[in-house]
Structures are given as structure tokens and as C-alpha cells.
User: What shape does this take?
Amino acid sequence: MGFNLDGNMESYPHLMAPLQVGAVTLRNRIVMGAMHTRLETLDRPYERIAAFYRMRAQGEVGLILTCGYSPNREGTFEPDAPLLCDGSQLAEHRSVTEAVHAADGLIALQLLHAGRYAKHDFCVGSSSDRSRINPIVPRELTTAEVWQTIEDFAKATELAREAGYDGVEIMGSEGYLINQFTASFTNHRTDEFGGDVRARMRFPLEILKAIRRRVGNGFMVIYRISAVDLVDDGMTGVEVAELARCVEAAGADMLNTGIGWHESVVPTIAASVPRAAWLYAIENVKAAVTLPVIASNRINTPDGAERLLASGSADLVSMARPLLADPDFAKKSRLGKPGEINTCIACNQACLDRIFTNRSATCLVNPRAGREIEFIPSPIARKKKFAVIGGGPAGMTFAINASERGHHVSLFESTDALGGQLNMARVVPGKSEFNEMLRYFRTRLAVLDVDVRLGVNVKPADLRGKDFDEIVVATGVRPRPPDIDGADHPKVLSYIDVLGRNASVGKRVAIIGAGGIGFDVAEFLVGDERESIEPANFFRAWGVDSTLASEGGITTAHCEFPLREVYMFQRKQESFGKRLGKSTGWILKSRLRRVNVVMTSGVTYSRVDDAGLHYILDGEMHVLPVDNVVLCAGQESERDLYEQLKVEGLNVRVIGGADSASELDALRAREQATRWASTR
Assistant: This one.
């Protein structure tokens, strides 16, 4: 299946089919997967959480899964993290369930014990092994404490039912406590909860049995199983299938699938992972049980979801970030308007990267996400006429939001294509999803009938006397002039030449600058776009055993070395990629080191000449013979037009990169444009 930009296409009979699960009927097969938002850390937390989930329910998602709530104090991520363990918390939760039910939605509470991932002094685990991603050494639970934790899960389930939830999801994946019990990697116990695979399975099975004793058979219970661990000494495919069968027998109504542990060295959800890459592991679970099975990870379009369900690989699809990106994903799919879906591009910049740095989640492609109570639509006082100069992320975002409010917008772009800096990002291997962002922009502008004028290099005289109420300048950024002798040498290229103008680049290349742009250029020069598109290539490059025969489903990685030699330099004496996103930076660094990209810090640049790049390191002069030097040493705002319009006395506002040049910060640009448009 596919769709055109007009949004005309066949329906999605499998995706839109209802499904009976326990005592409830899901209106379609789309599940909003659990994801941490940290909304609970902000002011008016449960008002925010209720608004967040209510909007997804209004968007007709079949079932919402909340973020993970711990059944006891030890299981929280941090001391003040979400917790459900006594009746005093019920009123807050009822405000959420009532909001969802008022929108004809269904919502289940995820119960998650962090285990050795917890970042507090009372961290516990199946054993006392420290995780490589957490400096805290866990205390091994005693046998009595394990049984108490089992009862804590059961009690929390009972409380969830009292709070009005339609079910619970037991988090047995991603390396959290239950997963720590099932894998020999982290279970070294000698009591009844450790030993062979049957003994290691006992913990989750006893949890399910305790839940059924407490709430009976009418309440929906979902178990999230680790379909593939992607860690050494994890479960084999045969063991995963056996666990799935035992979970069904223990009383689960549905199985959700998780992929990999948080400490795995294999990416699982970033844009560099091919769409639906983990289907082989999900099919292994599906074949083992009669229960409905939910597929997860890198499913972000209705056509992809429909194909997956039609094939019988799963019964439902879980989409967390795609529902962050577009709360109306399900409704637009039902209406046959997939071209209007604001597709998740798996960049992680505004969701996971913010979570990992103790900030609340939002979304690069939807800055309103997580801020629903801050963006309450209000009628406009009068219809205005806007001129927007610049068709990059900021300009298009403002044009769309202002037009949605009822204003007339003319959007001017000097080149023959919309997109601005996005047109450079989308050509980088692993970033092809940015094409979806551009597709959405173009489709939405057309639907709103925005007056788009390409190839127009606006001058102040072009705007004078045209009756524009306001002019919005979104002209973006330009490369910062380099402070290096020989910058005009024929060997020297800018990142725009490489990513935007298809300049010819030699086989031996030096990159000056190691921010996000420098890494993008490096990946462009040595990366293999097939890795992020074709699962077989991805598995080979990252050492994934798609047969599931090996423990943890991993094997030896194989790398094909590129035709180019690339050397990266930075002035700062710090680790490379320090400012890259937490959830994706490690992937990019690992990729580049794997193909022998050389990274050198603490460099002073001297000059570029026929001999190559001259630089000083540790007080010594060096010369690197190269075919090209690519400058990625920062940007400055392109605001000449803005300054000219101010002098003219016109009503002008500057947004995006033209306001503040900060790497290629599309999130900041889009958020600023959205907020400004919402007040006009």
C-alpha cells in the first residue's frame, strides 16, 4: 500500500478493525505505547497528563498505555518518579482515566519496576550486578522481598482498577527488573527464582498469577515480553517462545513486544534502524501463542502497519512516538488522509534526548506535544495578512499555524524547493525519515491553501505597500566565515557544498568542526544508506542474529570499509560528540569509529594549501595531505533582510535560525514559530 500527496488511498481494513480484549473492545488495532514524558515533574502535572492522553483519545487511538508506574518505592527510576502503591494516589489517576473515557478512549496503566536501572540509593535487582548505564550498584532482592514485590504488582493492579483504568501492562522487557530475572545475563540467584530458564521465568509468572487472584479474569492484563534481548547471555528465541506460552497460561489477555535492553549496543528505535526491522522477533512470539500480539518499534505509517497486520505477523501495532508526533494518527488513517499525518521521524531530539537529560518530552515535528494546556486554541480577533520570508522549518511552521487560525499567509522562498536546512539533513544516511517531515509540510500547506511562492528573492521594495499586516522573517542561517588562512583554496568546501549542492568530494577528507553538522557530513561521506533501509544490511552491520538461535539474539558485527578516509578535527579539548543527542549520538559515534574515521581534539588550525591541512596539536605542526577540507565550524544568522525591513519601519518579526543561529536546531525554530503564530 502507499499514498499520494493528495491523501487519496484505499482504506485500512486490518488496522481499523475492532478487537475484543478481556472485557473491553478496542475500536482499532492502534496502541499508543508507553513512553516516559516527565510531565509529572512540571507544574499542574495531572492536568497536563490528562490533557496529553485526552488528545490522543480524541484522535481515536484504540488503546493508550501510560508511562511506567512503579508498584513500590524501590522500583521508581528516581525518588519522585511515578508510583502507584496506595489509595491516596487514586484521585489524581481518576482525573486521567475520566478525561480519556470522556473522549471515548481506553487506557491501561503500565506497571514497571526499574530494577538495577533505578537512580537512587535504594536500587535493587535480581542480582547485585551493576548496569553499564547506571553507576549505582543494586542490592540483590532477598527471596522474601521477591515475594513481596510480586504482591506489590498485584496490589498496584487492584488500585489501577479502582482508579478507572481499563487494564494494566506488566513491563517485562527493555532490561527492567522482570527482564533482569528472565535473563542469565543478570540472574545469578540460587533460590527458586534463579537457575535454569524455567526458574528464571518464575518471577513474571507469579506476578501474573497474583494479579489474577487479586482482580479476577475480567480485568485486561497485558504482558510486555522482551522479544529479543540484544545482550550477551540473554534469552534465545526458543526460550522467548516458551516464556510467551507460559505467560498465556498464567492469565495474560494480550502480549506486547519489546526489543532490546537499554544497555544494548544495538540501536532499536532510532531513525538509523529500518522500519519494522524487528518483525522476525515479533513473529516468533506470535507463533507461540493464541493471544493477540502487539508489534512495536519503528512502525510509523498506516500503510506499513496495515501490511504488517495483513501478513498475520501481529494483531495490533504499538506506536509511542508516532502518537506524540500526531495525536490524530488513527483518525486521519480512518478518514483516508495518510498524507496529512505528521509522521514521526525517529530523531529522538525532543522526546528521548530530553528525557535522558531530565527534561519533559515534546516532539520535533509537533512542538505542542506535552504542552497541550499551553496551546489552547482561541478565536482570532481579526483575519490578518502575513508575509513569511523563508521556506525552512520555522517559516513553514509559522505559515501552517497562522493559516490554521484563519489568517491569510503568503510564503516566499528564494530557492525552487521548500525545506531549507531539512534538505541537507534528509540526504544523510540514517536520516531519510526527514523526507516524511517535508512531505507533511508540503501537504499541509496545500490543504490550507497557503500562497507559496518559490524562486522569489524578496527585497524590501517587494513588500512595501502590499497591505501585509505583519512580516515574519525566517531566512535561516549561513556558514560562519572561517578563521583560517587558505579558506578560499579550491580544496575547501562548506557543509552546504557537500550536503546541499552535491559537490564532488575526494577520497581523503578533513572535516573542521565536530558538532552535529560535522558528524552529519562525516556520515554522508562514509555511511551506507542501505543500513537504515534494509534490515539484512542493518543486522550484518550491528551483529544481530535474526535466526534467534544465539543467546540474546546477537552475533559478530561485520563492517564494509568505505572508499574514503575521513579525519575530523575540533578546537575544543573534549570528547567528540559531547553535544550530540543522548539517545542517538552514541550510534553515530560508534558507526564512524567502526569505519576508522579519525577524531582529533584540541587542534589549532594554521592554513590550507596545496599540501593539505596544516594544524598544530600539542605544540607541534602537522600537515595532513587531503583532497578536500570541509568547513563545519558553525553558523550565523541570515538577518540582512530583517534589518533592512526594520529600517523601512515595517511591522516585522524574526524567527528560527535568523533569530538565533544554533547548530541546525529545528526544534527550537519550530517551537518558536508555533508559539508566535498561536498568539497572532
Notes: The first strand starts at residue 19 and ends at 21. The chain is about 30% helix and 15% strand.
